[in-house]
């Protein structure tokens, strides 16, 4: 693993001179492009953003206090010397309806989509996924402008948090008879889709980047230490074993 960077708050570590193709169109509040109007209120049910934000922030606070995986990630960031302050590094915002959240490497900030991530379970998943990107940004020399770097952190996030037995079967990537073999296909699929969502590249380019770095990044289980399965004892086991990774 690469040595931790000297600057632990990565707010300005990524170039902000060209946002095109970075996926910020999915998060209109990021760059002040969202302007509510009568059409939003009448046709899209908008106008209740403040109430949504309050509810979102309360659920985020609950996850920070109670979720084993989220607590592992918070502990790992702090033990690695990374600056992590929920009021500074987590924001509830209005997003495109196709996403539940994201990580802004320019601002070093996690976005929780208050209009789509409405359950605690969804928010827990988003926080854990995006905390992995934040962890990688802080502890490794990740350049989010580099598609291979981006592919690697997306592989790690999918591997550690998304492709559990139930979700993998429901999405058609595996069955109870070939789960181990097909788990990698699920991770690759998730990583490719994630790269496509935030970068203006072709499917072939995204897939090639994922394939090139897959073996190394798939084998890296830090800081959770295991591939967790949804709604299983793996959550608690990972939390109990955090000391083995040095993140208790």
From TrEMBL:
Question: What keywords were assigned to this record?
Answer: Hydrolase, Metal-binding, Metalloprotease, Protease
For this protein, the record's InterPro entries field holds: Peptidase_M76_ATP23
Would you name any one GO CC term? mitochondrion
Q: Which GO terms describe its molecular function?
A: metal ion binding; metalloendopeptidase activity
The EC category is hydrolase
A single GO BP: mitochondrial protein processing
Cite the residue spans of the region called Disordered.
1-21
| E.C. numbers | 3.4.24.-
Q: Does the keyword Metal-binding apply?
A: yes
**What residues form the membrane-spanning segments?**
none
Q: Which family does it belong to?
A: Belongs to the peptidase M76 family.
From the Swiss-Prot or TrEMBL record, give the protein name.
Mitochondrial inner membrane protease ATP23
* Species of the source: Aphis gossypii (Cotton aphid)
């Amino acid at each position: 693993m690469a040595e931790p960077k000297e600057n632990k708050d990565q707010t300005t570590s990524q170039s902000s001179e060209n946002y095109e193709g970075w996926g910020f169109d999915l998060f209109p509040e990021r760059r002040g492009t969202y302007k509510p109007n009568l059409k939003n209120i009448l046709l899209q049910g908008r106008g209740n953003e403040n109430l949504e934000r309050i509810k979102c922030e309360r659920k985020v606070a609950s996850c920070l206090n109670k979720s084993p995986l989220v607590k592992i990630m918070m502990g790992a960031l702090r033990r690695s010397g990374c600056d992590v302050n929920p009021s500074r590094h987590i924001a509830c915002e209005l997003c495109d309806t196709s996403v539940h959240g994201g990580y802004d490497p320019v601002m070093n900030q996690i976005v929780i989509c208050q209009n789509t991530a409405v359950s605690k379970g969804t928010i827990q998943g988003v926080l854990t996924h995006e905390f992995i990107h934040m962890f990688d940004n802080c502890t490794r020399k990740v350049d989010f402008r580099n598609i291979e770097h981006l592919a690697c952190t997306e592989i790690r996030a999918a591997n550690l948090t998304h492709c559990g037995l139930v979700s993998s079967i429901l999405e058609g990537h595996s069955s109870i008879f070939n789960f181990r073999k097909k788990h990698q296909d699920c991770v690759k699929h998730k990583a490719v889709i994630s790269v496509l969502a935030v970068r203006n590249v072709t499917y072939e380019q995204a897939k090639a980047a994922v394939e090139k770095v897959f073996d190394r990044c798939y084998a890296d289980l830090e800081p959770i230490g295991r591939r967790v399965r949804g709604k299983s004892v793996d959550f608690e086991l990972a939390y109990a074993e955090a000391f083995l990774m040095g993140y208790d």
